[in-house]
Amino acid sequence: MDKKMKLTLIIGIPVVIAVILTATLIWPGNLLGGGVTYEKYEQITYDMSYEEVAKILGKGTMESEAGDGESRIASYSWKGKEKNSRVIVVFYGDKMGSKSQLGLQ
Hints:
This protein is of the alpha+beta class. It folds into two domains: 1-33; 35-105, Beta-lactamase Inhibitory Protein, Chain:B, domain 1 (2-Layer Sandwich). The chain has helices at residues 3-26, 38-43, 50-57; strands at residues 61-66, 73-79, 86-92, 95-102.
């Protein structure tokens, strides 16, 4: 094996590993079986705080927020395990007021 081939392997293998790890973090539902399942969705109940919901579903992505304190309304989304599936949860004040899902199985 010549020097050029060794250098390509030494640099190429870590780059491929980094790309796979990055893809796993960015698209958790696509690799390694991550994402929210219908079973997890059913575990979240009204009047839960964001922290309680996040313990079950993982960290959500804030989609919108308005107001503050008791009048605060914030919506968060989570990617589902299935392709194009999603969970949306709306919090009123500190408590979950509504939840919806699309495509979970």
